[in-house]
Amino acid sequence: MGKGALRNQNPCLCGAPRKFKDCCWGLTDEQIQNKANGKVIKEAGKRANIKTCLYPDKSQCSEGIIQAHGLQNNKILSKLSENGDVYMVDVLFGKNGPQIELVKQGRKKATTFTGFCGKHDTEVFSPIENQDYETGNKMQEALFAFRALAKEWHTKLKSKNMFDGVLKTNRNEYVLAFYEGIMLALDDIEKEMLAFQEVLLVEAPDRISTKLIVFEGEADVAVSACITMSHDFNGKRLEHFTSHPWLTPDQLFITIFPQNGKTFCLLSYDTNATETFAFLDEQLLNKSVAEQKELLSRLVIHHSENIVYSPRYIDALSEQQKTLLKERITESVGFLEDEPLLNRELGISLFT
């Protein structure tokens, strides 16, 4: 193909519906491929949504699957929003591959997922949707943890569905590595449902243990996350991650939210994982308030993208701090199990 013909190729080599000269002219082959990969993933994502109720007993489900919130809209997101908006992390695809950005979203859309029918979203989560959190209320703590699990489960199911489609036409190393990670994560999450079946079906909230930290003042962030920790805060590998390869590692559920002049930080897990997370007492709960804020910031930023930031928090950051925050989040996306991150100084705090 001659140079002139290439310049006028429509669609562009990356797949965009524009002429090559108006889109990718001047980019390297690698940059064009990055844009093409991003377009494939983005289009697959639009077709991959999962609509299902994740409550363990579906016999009483209502017909409609709704847009449920991972963090309560009325009690938490409304408190964080400015002019109806909050900030969340998003992955944008461009010539340099996937890039982490902080994107403004309407609070009615933020953290939503099609993971529950209307009946179960309303009835199951009523104790945390319609009532303030009470310290030591085990059922509320278990429901916060289940909400985090459900949001992460739905995200991974959607990702699997998306990559099932991508793999039909693209089986490069990048795509295969992501798919393998998704399948491992689904195994981890589905194991945790055994605990929540007891919590929800036989009302046994004691199956979930929770460690609580309370800060004075209301933080301008909120978190609902289900994570796998490979190392403790000292950089030591946790045994559950590699010592028993036939078992799946234990999950930690993190819920952080402002309420009545305080910030509540809940760290929850299956009681069968008590030994796994015993280090939290010495390395986190017994630290000073300043150290706790630093360590929790490391834990959340390095392990979760399901963080909601108030515009008040983002607008107070300098451009250098915003860049640093995105760099720290990006580190977690490329996280390797042999590279502990929690023992490194973060340089930015979620609790100002």
UniProtKB/TrEMBL annotation:
Report the superkingdom from the record. Answer: Bacteria
Q: What is this protein called?
A: SEC-C domain-containing protein
Q: Which species is listed as the source? A: Candidatus Kaiserbacteria bacterium RIFCSPLOWO2_12_FULL_45_26
